Amino acid sequence: MCSPKRRRLGPKPLTEIFWDRTLLITSIKMKRALTLLAAIGLLLASCSSTQSLQEYYIDNSENPDFLSLDVPVSVLNLEEVELSEKQREALESFKKLNILAFKKTEANGVSYQAEKAKVKQILKNSDFEELMKMNTPMGKASVQFLGDDNAIDEVVIYGDSKERGFALIRVLGKDMSPAHFMEVLKAIEKSDYQGEGLEQLGEFLKG
Question: Phi first, then psi: what are they for 63, rounded to 5°?
Fold first, then answer.
């Protein structure tokens, strides 16, 4: 009985070796590309999931739990106050206040905690730097700014109260600086300003 002939194993042809290597290199490159794309996707998802302060204002401007106001800096009534040259220059760099306030009630306590956490997370994750702490009718408040020591893009004042809610005030202007902000605070302290022009905010939070 004849046994079947065994196929002799010899070296692979050069074309086959070249083809195998090409497939291997292509596979490695594709894996690296997919890994890179996945990393970019995660990074973009992380960035897009962090809401900006501007987006937060827009999203809640029509929310019945919030009050949204745009107020000119002239509401502070500092025109008749005797200001130093520095204080007048500082005041001219401030243009308007964007105010967003959340009124806490017995029915929205859970929403209050959720919205307060959102705001604190936005301020924590953003490029804002803390300038100072201050006392307000809402209680303790933090003052943060966006920009650098020579050119502030905006100032944000945030304060909250367990009984009343919280308020966000964005101070917008041109050529502002931390020194300007401090001078404006001094000017307000020097004046007889009692919150005129912001009655709507006080009434809203008071209920």
Answer: -70, 125
Structure tokens at 41: 């996707």
Question: Mean pLDDT for the chain?
Answer: 77
Using CA atoms, how far apart are residues 113 and 60, in angstroms rounded to an integer?
Answer: 15
For the chain, the three-class secondary structure string (H helix, E strand, C coil) is: CCCCCCCCCCCCCHHHHHHHHHHHHHHHHHHHHHHHHHHHHHHHHHHHHCCCHHHHHHHHCCCCCEEEEEEEHHHHCCCCCCCCHHHHHHHHHEEEEEEEEEECCCCCHHHHHHHHHHHHHHHHHCCCEEEEEEEECCEEEEEEEEECCCCEEEEEEEEEECCCEEEEEEEEEEEECHHHHHHHHHHHHHCCCCCCCCHHHHHHHHC
Comparing CA positions, the residue from 198, 5, 177 lying closest to residue 93 is 177
- Give the residue ranges of the chain where pLDDT is below 70: 1-50, 126, 137-138, 192-198, 204-205, 207
pTM of the model: 0.69
Tens-place pLDDT, residues 41-82: 434 333 334 578 999 999 999 999 999 999 888 877 777 778
